[in-house]
Write a structure and sequence with these properties.
With about 350 residues, the chain is of the alpha+beta class. It has one domain: START domain (Alpha-D-Glucose-1,6-Bisphosphate, Chain A, domain 4). The chain has ten helices and eight strands. Strands 1, 2, 3, 4, 5, 6, 7 and 8 form an eight-stranded antiparallel β-sheet that branches. Strand 3 and strand 4 form a beta hairpin. Helix 8 crosses helix 10 and helix 9 packs antiparallel against helix 10. The chain starts with a helix and ends with a helix.
Length: about 350
């Protein structure tokens, strides 16, 4: 685990309710994986929101006392006519692209109530990492495994409790508690809904908030047979307090940079887990068996994913060796050298 943990420190891994998800949804790649080994691309169900009820119209959200973004002159479109990032038109385009017809009525209402009335919105910078698609999807859908890895490395104090197949409760042991609910997931998009509260020493009364985090993913197969995953995370955050709303807007650049950094670092960490699984599966299987905060069925599923990644890695290496051997043979033949 020392190799994976290099360049990490406790400060950079301090998770807040909002960042926990945003980060987990990290980085996907941009090319279809080999169909014979392609992972399950769509979640079959969720305890928090049964994902595939009869499609229907999205229910209008109820009125909220949360603050809306102000209308600012000059916001709306870039010079090329595309919606400017963070503008009302840009946020509306994201909402319209959500698979609302695949969600339960309750989930649709919950998502729209937050996404259409955010206190803060941020689109985190696109990331591209080399990662096996199976491993990426598994870690995205099982964030408690990431927390367990960090706990094993002694670089986080976050505690997780699984409430359902795709629902987790987390606490940073410093006043922040949140419930993370993955309400939708396929190979190209995951939607997390978060409800959180901070009741630490810095505030006289508890602060409550909600968030919707949409992870967009794309996959590409490299010439060497490995997969590169690129991903972008859209974050809609809603705070209940008017005073906190104003403070959050004032400090939004600082909050945004922290979220950006966490997203980047988590993406790199997921890539490192995938590479370690491919190159040293025995050590990773030992890690999987010792993971704290992770239930036995999830640890087994993680171990199975490690084995799948390792087998695929050997196939890629074998194919590469064959190609190199053939190239050397052609070079020898052209130069008149034989062996």
């Amino acid at each position: 685990m020392d190799e994976i943990g290099a360049h990490w420190n406790s400060r950079s891994l301090r998770l807040t309710a909002g960042c926990l998800l945003a980060i987990l949804a990290v980085e996907v790649q941009s090319a279809p994986a080999v169909q014979a080994q392609s992972p399950q691309t769509r979640l079959s169900h969720s305890q928090a929101a049964q994902l595939y009820e009869e499609p229907g119209q999205a229910t209008a959200p109820q009125a909220s006392n949360s603050r809306r973004f102000p209308s600012v002159f000059g916001w709306g479109q870039d010079s090329d006519g595309a919606p400017r990032i963070g503008s009302p038109a840009h946020r509306e385009a994201i909402i319209q692209a959500l698979p609302l017809d695949r969600l339960t009525p309750d989930a649709r209402v919950q998502i729209l109530e937050i996404a259409q009335n955010p206190t803060l919105f941020r689109q985190l910078p696109s990331q591209a990492v080399q990662c096996d698609q199976d491993m990426f999807l598994f870690l995205t859908r099982n964030p408690d495994v990431l927390v367990g890895l960090w706990d094993l490395m002694d670089i986080t104090k976050v505690q997780c409790q699984r409430l359902g197949p795709y629902q987790i409760k987390a606490s940073d042991q410093a006043g922040t508690v949140c419930k993370v609910d993955l309400v939708y997931g396929d190979s190209e998009q995951h939607i997390f809904v978060v409800e959180g509260m901070y009741d630490g020493k810095m505030v006289p009364t508890p602060i409550r908030g909600k968030g919707v985090f949409v992870l967009h993913s794309a996959y590409a197969q490299n010439a060497d047979g490995n997969t590169t995953i690129s991903g972008t995370l859209d974050c809609f955050v809603q705070l209940e307090s008017l005073g906190l709303d104003l403070i959050a807007r004032t400090f939004s650049p600082i909050i945004g940079r922290s979220a950006d950094s966490n997203f980047v670092q988590t993406a790199r960490f997921i890539s490192q887990v995938s590479q370690a699984s491919s190159q040293n599966p025995a050590a990773m299987l030992d890690v999987a068996n010792r993971l704290p905060q992770v239930e036995p069925p999830v640890r087994k599923a993680f171990a199975d994913t490690i084995v799948t990644v390792a087998r695929r890695g050997r196939e890629i290496v074998d194919t590469d060796d064959v190609a190199k051997t053939a190239e050397r043979a052609r070079s020898a033949e052209s130069s008149g050298v034989t062996r």
